């Protein structure tokens, strides 16, 4: 049987009631005691590296998860990370970029209801994640409500429902029902994920330099351009969530002019959209074409979760903005479709 390592980080799945509200208190060993039957399909070991509400997740803690995988990489066939749902999409994306040449499945999961509760979704999600971690696929994934989602396409869409995660701009990798895994046959392994026997032979390593000095700016009608002076003075990169397919104000509230000033100052400027689906195209409307003449970075149809982590990684590993632009605009584990 395969050897799987469970890495516990806290979250709702590991929480118990307290006077202060739900708090993560259950460690990895205790989590595994709730699903004893799963040990019939693999050898399971659990470790706890932190116990936090995922709203307190940050890049340094994401690096600790990557390091835990690296430290145990040779000894296990797959990894499951239990994680709070609120920032799971960010951590899944960050791991995708930090785990270079990963040749094993890394599956994040959590729950909307604590594992000790009668009506919990934790046991199913955890069992699904462990089963999928035994599969012959490589990469980072999120297991939730019977779906396996690419780590760079998982977005939390609902605050309460069991089906809170959706796969944005990309099909779910697999469905799991009653313990049976059905991998999406429409996915081309050569372009997206490779089967282990077909995967590259490059050596696995982690690259954990993440630049936290980025800003995400969501445009709204009437936004004063003065915010860009603050960004220029304090950040190395900014993700601008534009209107629609890539609209940026260019008249009374001239944001396009401010973007050009940021680029001249050596700030990485990434243009994405506030719309979840279908991405941007700056070559359709006049307001977008003016922006397209600048050296902006195109987000295509990436999620903000993946985009923010990819920008952090790029700025942490490249000094030249052209290299940053090239890296972000190059698909990594199918994080963008164009």
UniProtKB/TrEMBL annotation:
Belongs to the asparaginase 1 family. InterPro entries: AsnA_fam (IPR006033), Asp/glu_Ase-like_sf (IPR036152), Asparaginase/glutaminase-like (IPR006034), Asparaginase/glutaminase_AS1 (IPR020827), Asparaginase/glutaminase_AS2 (IPR027475), Asparaginase_C (IPR040919), L-asparaginase_C (IPR027473), L-asparaginase_I (IPR041725). Residues 213-326 form the Asparaginase/glutaminase C-terminal domain. GO terms for biological process: amino acid metabolic process. PROSITE patterns: ASN_GLN_ASE_1, ASN_GLN_ASE_2, ASN_GLN_ASE_3. It comes from Candidatus Galacturonatibacter soehngenii. Substrate binds at residues 54, 85-86. This is asparaginase. The keyword tRNA processing does not apply. SUPFAM superfamilies: Glutaminase/Asparaginase (SSF53774). NCBIfam families: asnASE_I. GO terms for molecular function: asparaginase activity. Its EC number is 3.5.1.1. It catalyses: L-asparagine + H2O = L-aspartate + NH4(+). Gene3D superfamilies: 3.40.50.40, L-asparaginase, N-terminal domain (3.40.50.1170). The keyword Hydrolase applies. The active site is at 12 (o-isoaspartyl threonine intermediate), 12, 85. Residues 3-186 form the L-asparaginase N-terminal domain. Keywords: Hydrolase. Pfam families: Asparaginase, Asparaginase_C.
């Amino acid at each position: 049987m395969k050897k799987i390592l469970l890495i516990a980080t806290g979250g709702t799945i590991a929480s118990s009631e307290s006077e202060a509200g739900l708090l993560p208190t259950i460690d990895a060993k205790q989590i595994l005691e709730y699903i004893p039957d799963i040990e019939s399909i693999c050898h399971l070991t659990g470790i706890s590296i932190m116990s936090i509400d995922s709203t307190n997740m940050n890049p340094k803690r994401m690096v600790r998860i990557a390091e835990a995988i690296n430290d145990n990489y040779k000894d296990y066939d797959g990894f499951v990370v239990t994680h709070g749902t609120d920032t799971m999409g960010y951590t899944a994306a960050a791991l995708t970029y930090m785990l270079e040449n990963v040749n094993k499945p890394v599956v994040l999961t959590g729950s909307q209801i604590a594992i000790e509760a009668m009506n919990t979704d934790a046991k199913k999600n955890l069992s699904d994640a462990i089963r999928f971690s035994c599969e012959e696929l490589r990469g980072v994934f999120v297991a939730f409500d019977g779906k396996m989602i690419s780590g760079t396409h998982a977005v939390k869409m609902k605050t309460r429902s069991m089906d809170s995660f959706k796969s944005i701009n990309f099909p779910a990798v697999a469905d799991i029902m009653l313990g049976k895994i059905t991998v999406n046959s429409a996915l081309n392994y050569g372009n997206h994920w490779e089967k282990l026997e077909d995967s590259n032979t490059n050596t696995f390593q982690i690259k954990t330099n993440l630049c936290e000095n980025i800003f995400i700016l969501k445009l709204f009608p009437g936004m004063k351009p003065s915010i860009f002076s603050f960004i220029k003075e304090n950040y190395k990169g900014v993700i601008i969530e534009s209107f629609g397919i890539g609209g940026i104000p260019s008249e009374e509230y001239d944001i396009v002019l401010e973007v050009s000033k940021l680029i001249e100052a050596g700030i990485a400027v990434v243009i994405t959209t506030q719309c979840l689906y279908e991405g941007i195209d700056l070559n359709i409307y006049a307001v977008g074409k003016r922006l397209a003449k600048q050296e902006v970075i195109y987000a295509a149809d990436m999620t903000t979760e993946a985009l923010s982590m990819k920008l952090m990684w790029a700025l942490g590993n490249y000094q030249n903005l052209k290299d940053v632009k090239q890296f972000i605009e190059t698909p990594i584990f199918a994080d963008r479709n164009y």
